[in-house]
Amino acid sequence: MSRTVPAAAHFLPFAALLFAALQPELNAQQIELDRSPPHIIIPAPEPFSLSAYDALHARAMMHRVGFIQLWYGSGAPDTLRVREVEALRVGFDEGLPPGHRARYDLMLNGGPVDWDHTYIEYDGRMVSLRLLFTYRNQYPPDDLEYTGNAYTW
Fold it and tell me: What 3-state class would DSSP assign to 113?
């Protein structure tokens, strides 16, 4: 009875040695990738706008909460009841990734949302609506107050 050994069995030890020899190179390449610069922080679009996905979520959030507050940095905020929120297409930005290129603004009770002064209840406090919908690789304007006055309903 003769035994035949598959040809691949002869190359297995060679492949293991080759892999072991290349492993330090692979680790060095991975280290180089880990040293690459962090993602670039970019400014939010001006005028501020949303993707279709975010416009739907912002619209739903405003309807769910039912009220927003306009606060200009001092004094008592003006509280508005949310009656109607519409998403209005305002442009197309080729520089953004697919799915974010069509840009929308929100119309609240017939007028445009004042993104820099509109606050909504979120997690038990009043938070800037613009801040909630600013992407994680963007920074909001320097003078934007993240949380509004302590007034809640």
Answer: coil
Beta carbons of 135 and 93 less than 8 angstroms apart: no
DSSP 22: H
CA–CA distance, 115 with 51 (Å, rounded to integer):
15
* Contact present, 65 and 52 (Cβ < 8 Å): no
Conformational region of residue 31, where left means phi above 0, alpha means psi within -120 to 50, and beta covers everything else: alpha
Q: Work out the number of other CB atoms within 10 angstroms of the CB of residue 148.
A: 24
Q: Is pLDDT of 29 > 80?
A: no
Reduced to 3 states (helix: H, G, I; strand: E, B; else coil), residue 116 is: coil
- Residue 103: its pLDDT value, please? 92
Q: Which residues, at least 6 apart from 41, have a Cβ–Cβ distance to it below 8 Å?
A: 137, 138, 139
